[in-house]
Amino acid sequence: MTKFWKPILAVLLVCTLALSGGALLAKPAASAASYSPAAPQAAPVSADEEFRAVWVATVYRLDYPSQATTDPAVLKRDADAILQECVELGMNAVILQVRPSADALYPSDYYPWSRYLTGTQGTAPRNGFDPLEYWVERAHALGLELHAWINPFRITKGGQTEFDSLTADHPARLHPDWVVEYEGEFYFNPGLPEVRAYIIQGAEELARSYDIDGVHLDDYFYPGSGFDDADTYAQYGAGFSDLGDWRRDNVNQLVEELGERLHAIDPNLSYGISPSGVWADRSSLPQGSNTTGGYESYYASYADSRKWVKEGWIDYICPQIYWYIGHRSMDYATVARWWADTVKGTGVRLYIGMADYLADNADPKSPWYGTDAIQAQLELNDTLPQVAGEVHFRYQFLADSQALGGLYRQWYGTAEPEEPAEPAHLNTADHEAYIQGNNGLFRPEASLSRAEAVAMLARLSVDGDGNPLYTGAAGTGGFSDVSRGDWYAPYVAFAQKYGIASGYLDGTFRPEQPVSRAELVKLIAAYFEVTGGTASFPDVAAGYWASDVISFAAQQGWVSGYPDGTFRPDAPVGRAEAVKILNHALDRRAGERPASLPFTDVPKDHWAYDEIREAAVSHTYQKTDDGEKWLTYDR
After folding, report:
1. Is 468 exposed, middle or buried (0-12, 13-18, 19+ CB in 10 A)?
2. What is the DSSP string of 203-221?
3. Is the model's pLDDT at 8 over the cut of 70?
4. What is the dihedral of CA 587, 589, 594, 596, to 10 degrees?
5. 331 φ/ψ angles, rounded to the nearest 5 degrees
6. Is the overall model pTM greater than 0.85, yes or no?
7. Does residue 186 surpass a pLDDT of 50?
8. How far apart are CA 491 and CA 361, in angstroms?
């Protein structure tokens, strides 16, 4: 399957955020000590497994190269610029169109040099330069995968004029009986076994000659129902009473055998196809999607993409779902969920082809106005565990749109940390509930995780006027082990933005790891101007990384030691302990109250019963000499 490379830039970015000494640095953010939101049915892929790719088109030089040239310097410069931009956008793969028609962007024994590269078909770059070899080398150096994208059957995009200019050694010239004209363009005939064999051999050449990470087929198979292959059907269609079934079988044979042959060369090679988004409408086939658009790849291009998935012939499927959420006939959400259900249990990865070329429309009335439609799709993808990534069409649209570039830098975690307008403060004025249970349980003695601590503090963060700062904005904070689909991801992103939390030198946040007593104190103390001092605990040495904040917390009355005088700084902090410490830092004074505690696993004689109630029940209050008096409270 796919060999995943982690973008070096992202690693470096996260490393700069790590606290020296390896300890977690976090400045309080608010969550529940036992926060447990509704979880998805299955966990999405982790951030380092998620496939984030860009299609780089070479047909008509749409993305590469910038000009037709034989100059290696220009070809290298253009490649470098694209690859570097992809890294900065947060991508981890590039899908480069190396065979836009029956031609090549590399020296091939099967196809002539592409006219889109050098201006003239059959003309090679100077000095023996191999563009594909350079792309692979540079992509890998930057931590990107390089997938070779081929169009299997197309011969021309420029009609008869282009066909007449094909080189003498072009396979269409050498084998005119392989060629079918359709609506002014020319195609190889998929019904001929020798055509399919030739296409497979050309793909094998790529797998043998280059250290590519994948081979990628686009959505062009049969160009339409009027394709002139009656003679071929008569010759090879025995056993098929339906022309459409025979055509689909021809494509299926190519798909299956190509995968077998590629994996025989390199078992780790990732082999995938990007069909049109709708396989079939439910009105046409009962297994189809609830769509009514009329363009069904099962019939239009004879691509039985559902079968490829169910048979496991490919490593991934990348449907081009080029409609917005809410589209009347081909709703993005409907189609994406259909594909998620289709791949379920098959082992075939699902990447979504995204319509970036439609986004950032300047018309406020357009459903593609700005980037909201794309962001909504990304958010939906994160709710579907089977979605293992996205592929964006295409490079130049991302490069040209500042809005799209900004979205992906933020979404994929490569944006420079945004400086907040002002620092976060702890909400010491309002006594809202800041902890929740799960199914009526609080688990007071259970350890508090890093994610829960950050969430608890993020929800308690306010600006200088007391307004809540946490908005739930999507993000990951740039940590390799935090995925946007994780319930805690927005809290971690918030904490990173406000300097509340940073991770370890390996780029991780370790969200499920228990928070130690020292770490929790460090988180809370970040909201305060910490004065110096020596911790009065025998197990906290003066050189300990958190000795100053532990001493400060003790002086403020937030914490005290155990009966033997120790603080046990590296011991995991329990949920009840965490609530008591935070209550004291917030100057929230626990005591006897009329409200009952909403947790069945905390009896009234529990040592922290009053502290937990103080944190779990929203109330208005009046400070008194010996504590506080509740005026109103949630029942």
Report:
1. middle
2. HHHHHHHS--SEEEE-S-S
3. no
4. 80
5. -65, 130
6. no
7. yes
8. 31
